[in-house]
Each structure stands twice: as structure tokens, then as C-alpha cells.
Amino acid sequence: MSNQSGQYLDLIYSSPASGTAKNTFTSEVKINDTAGMGATPILLPEFWLPNGGVGRGIHIIARGILSSTGTPTFTITCRIGAEGSTSAAIVLGTAALTTGSGVTNQIWQLEGDVILKTLAAAGANSTAIGTGLFISSGTANKIDPAYGGGATPGTVATVDHSIANYINLNAACSASAAGNSIQVQQLVILGL
Q1: Residue, of 47 and 25, whose pLDDT is higher
Q2: Measured at the alpha carbon of residue 140, what is the angle toward residues 15 and 87, in degrees to the nearest 5?
Q3: Domain coordinates in residue numbering, the chain
Q4: Pairing mode, if any, of strands 155-159 and 126-136?
Q5: DSSP assignment letter at 123
Q6: How far apart are CA 103 and CA 113, in angstroms?
Q7: pLDDT band at 141; cut points 50, 70, 90
Q8: Closest CA relative to residue 57, chosen from 131, 125, 1
Q9: Checking CA distances to 165, which of 21, 41, 47, 159 falls within 20 to 30 Å?
Q10: Whole-structure pTM over 0.70, yes or no?
Q11: Exposed e or buried b for every residue in 135-150, given b needs 16+ CB within 10 A?
Q12: CA angle 95-14-90, nearest 5°?
């Protein structure tokens, strides 16, 4: 399939199932869990190499719901690396996002692109740029940026194209409570 600019898009991953809702946590946890959604999306080794790799990328679309008691913050990260990792390279990440007080099942969406900027030798770290948006009526700003590395300009200098890179969608919450919950209900990964 091609988009309006004539670029071709390849479906890498789409899950018809929802992740398991997470609550009572503060440390970063994987929300696209295998118990709820099945297999974790993966970029096979050398995914970035066709046509020299530079300019090749992925488009990430994640949607779900969140709830809160009080006004805790949620930090959302999309990492590539080992399966289930909460420490691998952040290719899209938000700052701590303050929720509204007493929010229930508010829709959220994280969408962005991760584009390879420099290609290193196998086993070395290539550089990518990740930019996108987090949108939710349940957060204070309603629209927030999402960047590679979690900060502008979105540079991620630790991408190893020669390994299998799993796409882990994670969240952390500032306050552990049963009413502070987040769930991913749709995850789509497209190759650019």
C-alpha cells in the first residue's frame, strides 16, 4: 500500500487483542504484554538495511484507555531491543503526563515515526530519529510530544540493526493505586 506521498507502507504487526490492563504499579511495565496481545512485534535483523537503510523507518500507532484517582502522572515509552525490556532504546517516549482527577476509561493514542538517520556497522549503534504525539482527553495538556530518547530533538544513538529488535510499549505511573490504570487496546506497526 502507498500513502499520499507515494511511499510504500508494509504491515509489520497488528494485534486484534487488547493488552492486560495494568494498575497498582510505579515502575515501568510492558503494556503490550504477551498474555493479552500475543506475540510481541519484532523487527528482524537487518530490517533497516534495504536501500542503504538511511531514511527507512517504522510508523507506530498505539491506542488504549487510561483511568486515574487524583492526578497521577503516566510516562509512556516505546522501546526497541530485547523482548520485554524496560531499559532498551526509547524510540518514542513522553514526559510525565499529568492526568485529570477521577478520569475513567479515557482514550489515548501514541503515534509517531522512527526513521534511521545513520547506519553503523553490524553490532555497532546506528542513529534514528523518533518523533510523534500522545493525545488523550484524560491528560492535562490533551496533546503532548513523544520523542526518541524521551526528549527533543528525538535522537536515539543506540539502535543495533543487526539484532532482532522487539517493540515494547511500556508505561510508568507516579502513584500505585487500583484506580490508576492503563491498557493498550490496539497496536499497529508499519514499515516505511
Answers
A1: 25
A2: 50
A3: 13-191
A4: antiparallel
A5: T
A6: 29
A7: very high
A8: 131
A9: 21
A10: yes
A11: bbebbeeeebbbbbbb
A12: 25
